[in-house]
Inverse folding.
């Protein structure tokens, strides 16, 4: 219950920040069609739940049904862990990115998708993690979206599913690190949490563990505080707490709220880059039809 409410609160805080700092971004997100954002089903991650709670229209497809001509380069595709595609599906993902598509993958898709379809950039270091929680830091501080939501006073944590795949970077000249974790590096050999690289005309993002975080740990006295303590840190006025109470804030800890906001910030950052690329290239055509579930 705590994390579910934390995600709802994080989305509300993000929308309020965007409304005051980048109102055009909210308009862009509101104008998206279900065919613009595609999520492939997975067993262990559920990115579609975050999109649904954020009221981002999207289409859910079976990864085994991805084939030649399924995807359009104007789309943003999220691949839930583990990323089980046929060889034809992997070829379609590579074509999609090469022609301008944005691809986001999580955890075990590092081996099943990225090593297979985009070799030579990143790989699994062979040392699976324990069920663990680590502190994360912003590596790319020039990203305006992450910087506006995760400030220096924040101390966000990232849940590592048991047997998550640490990300070894093979091409530091081409791979950008957005989020990292010194603690992750000390424990499991690689500090990268969220990375990205360009391929052809498109872009690929990958993140260790899962997008939909399920737990955190209260490691400090600050983490044991309430969601309302976190709102105060973010400059939200006490008189505006009512909406957050309606979203379940009484049952949310500061550490849960902070973790949910870090996850939601990642999605916002990726979608901002994608929307700006679409706007810059003037693309506004629907993707090919495909049997799917629309959210």
């Amino acid at each position: 219950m705590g994390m579910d409410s934390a995600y709802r609160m994080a989305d509300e805080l993000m929308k309020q920040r965007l409304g005051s700092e980048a109102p055009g971004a909210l308009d862009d997100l509101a104008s998206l069609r279900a065919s613009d954002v595609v999520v492939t089903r997975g067993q262990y991650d559920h990115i579609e739940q975050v999109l649904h709670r954020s009221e981002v229209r999207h289409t859910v497809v079976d990864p085994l049904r991805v084939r030649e001509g399924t995807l359009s380069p104007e789309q943003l595709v999220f691949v839930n862990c583990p990323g089980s595609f046929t060889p034809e599906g992997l070829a379609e993902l590579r074509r999609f990115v090469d022609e301008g598509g944005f691809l986001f993958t999580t955890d075990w898709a590092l081996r099943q998708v990225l090593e297979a379809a985009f070799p030579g950039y990143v790989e699994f270091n062979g040392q699976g993690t324990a069920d663990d929680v680590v502190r994360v830091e912003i590596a790319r501080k020039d990203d305006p979206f992450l910087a506006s939501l995760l400030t220096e006073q924040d101390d966000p944590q990232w849940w590592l599913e048991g047997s998550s795949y640490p990300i070894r970077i093979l091409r530091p000249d081409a791979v950008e690190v957005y989020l990292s974790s010194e603690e992750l590096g000390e424990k499991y050999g690689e500090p990268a949490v969220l990375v990205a690289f360009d391929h052809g005309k498109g872009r690929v993002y990958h993140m260790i563990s899962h997008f939909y975080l399920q737990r955190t740990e209260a490691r400090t006295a600050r983490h044991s505080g309430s969601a309302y303590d976190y709102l105060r840190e973010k400059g939200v006025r006490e008189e505006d707490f009512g909406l957050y109470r309606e979203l379940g804030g009484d049952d949310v800890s500061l550490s849960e709220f902070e973790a949910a906001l870090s996850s939601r910030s990642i999605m916002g950052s990726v979608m901002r880059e994608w929307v700006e690329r679409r706007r810059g290239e003037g693309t506004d055509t629907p993707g090919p039809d495909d049997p799917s579930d629309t959210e």
